[in-house]
């Protein structure tokens, strides 16, 4: 006889499958619609066509980022749980998968909606793009999507069946899910990156338009300048995103926990989510730098447009957000450390502290003297760090963990202040007023090694040194945390309650920053749909203000949060209550009984 | 209660330290001639540091359950949303009207050149002609035959005139300067002390004395044809985009060349061009 929860689960599975099939049908219908001649553009009644595409597209990317990022650490967590016989990892993996399955259908639905809104509002261009990537939109992407759906459902519904000796088969399914997910991401990155950097003819002297329209193959169009940097950036970004959303799930569940046991589990869950998020976050500035570098290498006029012209204040805002994220993630590490019994005995070399203090200035000077990618730009900083680490090993002077953490926070603030320092506080840097009323003071001092001036703070070597400082401080804090763990005893579930708000803040800020930088990447196309190739003839092809963008990004983030919060509550909280109601009361069991 | 007392004393001590730090920053920034806007930035960082050091040593927060936790979460979301929006609004805003004007000048001629653009132009002119003929009919009905010839000639005059090429006989230097602005050459080059923050492209103040118009045109159409002295690294990195021959029309390039040729300020050191 079928039980009520089993029937309910089946119905929920059917409804989700229908939702996804609907989404997929929308994609195919859109591809078919794209074959019709010259559709007339519709005007979206609220906020205009650009805002409509922005909202739906961004929502789709946020859901997609989670369902692609979460499985990466789900399968790692499942593997760790199986390898180390730690049931917490298994439970973490299963709970995040539950939420992923729900959000998967939202990804399909918003994806279909995105294509439809695009066709209705920018029909002529969408048709052009779909026709240039016909095999991608009509065959490859839908097939990958179907494959991913099948594997995701297999992964979820075989979880309990493939246990014990069959566990490796289940983990293999998870790996397959990730492979398909990553290929799907890479495939759809093809048209996306093509719009930023359409491939140019390397020989034959063909102009861009003639080459794209007559000679370039599908592979040429996919394998463009920014394709790999975008692939890397989005893969790392998705892991960050997945980690912080896992932290959000943990925070909600911690707040809703009724027992110490539950709180201990969700405290640990939040810690793992944050660690994965922060771990991947350390790579993100460099992946972003690589993407920006390739964009600038494709067309040098993109660089000043981003850093010195219309988008310069977007990068100021990004600097502020990155600073807040690093402050919050280090604060969470500090709160985790504070509840370790025996922390007061943990000490660190004073040389490490001095290294941390000197990194921003010394690295800035080194990278000014030897700009990246000069080989010395790698050798000199590496040698500097190694020398200090040797001094740390051989000298007896140490500082307490408290002092170390306080200095580390000071350096996060200093690093962020350097990151935030512009050449001038004006929206268009190159056209700053001559009187210097808004610009950094001039005046150079020539040292033996390099010439220094305040202007240096606004240049890339300083920004790179600031990014390195933030990453370095976070690594030192984690080392300190691990040392504290080795010397003391952690009490899970007893973390300061404010830490849960830190997890919520990290997820919210990460999503907001993703929205901001996504907008920047899209806006670098300026008044083109495809940079230098397809003009945007609508009245909305101008760069929006940062103010307008911030309202839109906040609206999108809040909408995404509301949906994700419902998904978490629906799957984990109510699911748990149902399971409690359906399960018999705990009874003493006879030893050896099944 | 002891915890609240410790929190108050922590707040007082940290705020005092924050204020002292802010004052020191402002004095140091003034001595080093930082403009006011940077001084404000330093003060904000002093207060960010104060907040961080208060949080580091603050006593633990009491756990919230049920509705209280939900309300606290919603309030928290409202606060961070407000802070992010306020932060973005506090920064200088680019005026889209500036860019809209530029886009109109760049994109509209391209639009007119497309099939859709031509159809739209034809439709617009048909509508105009229709309006004229309606006006003629109305006046024919009200006026006598003598006026008809005048009306016919006025209508013909308007139709044959069509849209005149604006500024065709105007100042080519001014048109070239407009192209310089539209193509945002100022992002990499300096003229009259404006533009080119980083070392990307050479100053152009005296380029009219250093290059002939045909050489300037060659450089615009093929950026590899000349290299500015001292800009070997930038030349090798191909910083000058190779796209203007595709994005600009011949008259636009000619206008830009005329403007560049007019730049003859020999008092400004301008790198010499080297033929490649």
Strand order of the largest sheet of chain B: 1-2
The assembly state of the depicted protein chains is heterodimer
Gyration radius of chain B, to the nearest Å?
Answer: 32 Å
How far apart are the first and last residues' alpha carbons of chain B, in Å? Answer: 81 Å
What is the chain-wise order of helices and strands of chain A?
HHHHHHHHHHHHHEEHHEHEEHEHEEH
Q: What is the count of DSSP helices of chain B, taking H or I runs of 4+ residues?
A: 12
The shape of chain A is: globular
* Percent helix range of chain B: 55-70%
What's the CATH class label of the largest domain in chain B?
Mainly Alpha
What is the CA-atom radius of gyration of chain A, in angstroms?
Answer: 26 Å
CATH homologous superfamily of the largest domain in chain B? Cytochrome c-like domain
**What is the CATH topology of the largest domain in chain B?**
Cytochrome Bc1 Complex, Chain D, domain 2
Mean pLDDT of chain A: 87
- Backbone structural class of chain B: mainly alpha
CATH architecture of the largest domain in chain B: Orthogonal Bundle
Binned strand content of chain B: under 5%
**What about the largest sheet of chain A?**
2 strands, antiparallel
Structure description:
The complex is a heterodimer of chains A (594) and B (276). Helices cover 72% and strands 4% of the residues of chain A. With 594 residues, chain A is mainly alpha-helical. Chain A has a domain at 13-291 and 550-578. In chain B, 67% of the residues lie in helices and 2% in strands. The longest helix of chain B is centred in the first third of the chain and has 30 residues, at 2-31. In chain B, strands 1-2 form a two-stranded antiparallel ribbon. Chain B is an all-alpha fold. Chain B starts with a helix and ends with a strand. Chain B folds into three domains: 2-90; 111-161; 172-275, Cytochrome Bc1 Complex, Chain D, domain 2, CATH 1.10.760.10. In chain B, 20% of the residues are buried. The chains are: A mainly alpha (594), B mainly alpha (276). At the A-B interface, helix 13, helix 16, helix 18 and helix 19 of A face helix 2, helix 3, helix 4 and helix 11 of B.
């Amino acid at each position: 006889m079928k039980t009520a929860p089993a029937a309910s689960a089946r119905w929920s599975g059917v409804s989700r499958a229908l939702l996804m099939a609907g989404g997929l049908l929308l994609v195919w219908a859109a591809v078919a619609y794209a074959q019709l001649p010259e559709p007339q553009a519709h005007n979206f009644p609220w906020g205009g066509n650009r805002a409509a595409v922005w909202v739906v597209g961004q929502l789709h990317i946020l859901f997609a980022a989670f369902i692609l990022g979460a499985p990466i650490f789900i399968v790692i967590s499942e593997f760790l749980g199986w390898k180390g016989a730690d049931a917490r990892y298994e439970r973490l993996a299963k709970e995040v998968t539950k939420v992923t399955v729900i959000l998967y259908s939202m990804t399909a639905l918003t994806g279909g909606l995105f294509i439809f809104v695009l066709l209705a509002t920018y029909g002529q261009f969408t048709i052009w793009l779909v026709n240039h990537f016909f095999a991608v939109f009509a065959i490859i992407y839908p097939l990958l999507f179907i494959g991913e759906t099948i594997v995701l459902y297999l992964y979820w519904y075989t979880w309990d069946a493939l246990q014990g000796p069959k566990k490796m088969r289940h983990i293999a399914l998870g790996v397959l899910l990730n492979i398909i997910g990553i290929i799907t991401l890479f495939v759809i990155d093809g048209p996306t990156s093509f719009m930023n950097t359409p491939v140019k003819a390397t020989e034959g002297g063909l102009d861009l338009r003639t080459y794209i329209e007559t000679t370039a193959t599908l592979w040429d169009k996919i394998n463009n300048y920014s394709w790999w940097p975008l692939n890397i950036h989005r893969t790392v970004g998705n892991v960050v995103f997945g980690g912080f959303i896992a932290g959000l799930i943990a925070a909600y569940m911690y707040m809703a926990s009724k027992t110490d046991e539950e709180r201990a589990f969700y405290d640990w869950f939040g810690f793992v989510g944050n660690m994965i998020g922060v771990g991947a976050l350390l790579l993100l500035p460099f992946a972003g730098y690589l993407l920006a570098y390739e964009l600038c290498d494709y067309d040098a006029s993109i660089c000043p447009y981003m850093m010195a012209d219309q988008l310069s204040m977007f990068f100021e805002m990004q600097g502020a957000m990155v600073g807040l994220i690093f402050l919050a993630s280090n604060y969470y590490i500090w709160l985790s450390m504070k509840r370790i019994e025996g922390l007061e005995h943990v000490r660190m070399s004073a040389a490490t502290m001095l290294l941390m203090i000197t990194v921003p200035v010394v690295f800035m000077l080194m990278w000014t003297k030897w700009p990246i990618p000069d080989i010395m730009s790698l050798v000199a900083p590496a040698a500097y760090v190694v020398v200090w680490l040797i001094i740390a090993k051989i000298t007896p002077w140490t500082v307490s963990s408290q002092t170390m953490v306080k200095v580390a926070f000071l350096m996060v603030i200093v690093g962020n202040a350097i990151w935030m320092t512009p050449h001038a506080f004006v929206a268009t840097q190159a056209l700053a007023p001559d009187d210097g009323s808004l610009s950094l003071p001039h005046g150079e001092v020539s040292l033996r090694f390099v010439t220094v001036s305040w202007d240096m703070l606004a240049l890339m070597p300083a920004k790179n040194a600031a990014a390195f400082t933030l990453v370095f401080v976070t690594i030192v804090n984690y080392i300190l945390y691990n040392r504290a763990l080795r010397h003391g005893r952690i009490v899970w579930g007893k973390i300061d309650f404010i830490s849960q708000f830190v997890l919520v803040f990290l997820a919210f800020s990460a999503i907001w920053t993703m929205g901001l930088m996504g907008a920047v990447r899209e806006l670098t196309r300026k008044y083109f749909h495809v940079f230098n190739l397809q003009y945007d003839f609508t009245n909305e092809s101008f760069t929006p203000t940062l103010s307008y963008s911030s309202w839109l990004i906040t609206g999108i983030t809040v909408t995404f949060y509301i949906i994700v919060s419902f998904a978490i509550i629906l799957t984990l909280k109510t699911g748990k209550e149902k399971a409690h109601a359906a399960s018999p009361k705990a009874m003493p069991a006879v030893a050896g009984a099944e | 209660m002891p915890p609240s007392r410790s929190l108050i004393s922590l707040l007082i001590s940290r705020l005092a330290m924050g204020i002292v730090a802010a004052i020191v920053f402002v004095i140091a920034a003034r001595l080093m001639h930082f403009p006011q806007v940077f001084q404000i930035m330093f003060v904000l960082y002093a207060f960010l540091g104060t907040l961080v050091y208060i949080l580091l040593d603050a006593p633990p927060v009491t756990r919230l359950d049920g509705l209280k936790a939900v309300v606290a979460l919603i309030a928290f979301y409202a606060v961070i949303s407000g802070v992010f929006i306020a932060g973005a609004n506090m920064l200088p805003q680019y005026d889209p009207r500036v860019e809209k004007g530029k886009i109109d000048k760049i994109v509209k001629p391209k639009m007119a050149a497309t099939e859709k653009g031509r159809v739209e132009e034809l439709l617009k002119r048909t509508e105009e002609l229709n309006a004229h003929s309606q006006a003629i009919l109305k006046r024919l009905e009200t006026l006598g035959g003598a006026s008809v010839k005048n009306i016919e000639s006025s209508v013909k005059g308007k139709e044959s005139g069509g849209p005149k090429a604006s500024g065709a006989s105007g100042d080519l230097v001014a048109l070239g300067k407009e192209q310089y602005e539209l193509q945002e050459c100022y992002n990499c080059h300096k003229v009259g002390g404006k533009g080119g923050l980083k070392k990307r492209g050479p100053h152009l103040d005296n380029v009219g004395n250093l290059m002939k118009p045909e050489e300037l045109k060659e450089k615009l159409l093929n950026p590899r044809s000349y290299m500015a002295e001292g800009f070997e690294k930038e030349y090798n990195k191909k910083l000058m985009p190779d796209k203007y021959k595709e994005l600009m029309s011949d008259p636009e390039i000619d206008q830009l060349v005329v403007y560049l040729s007019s730049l003859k300020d020999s008092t400004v050191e301008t790198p010499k061009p080297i033929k490649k």
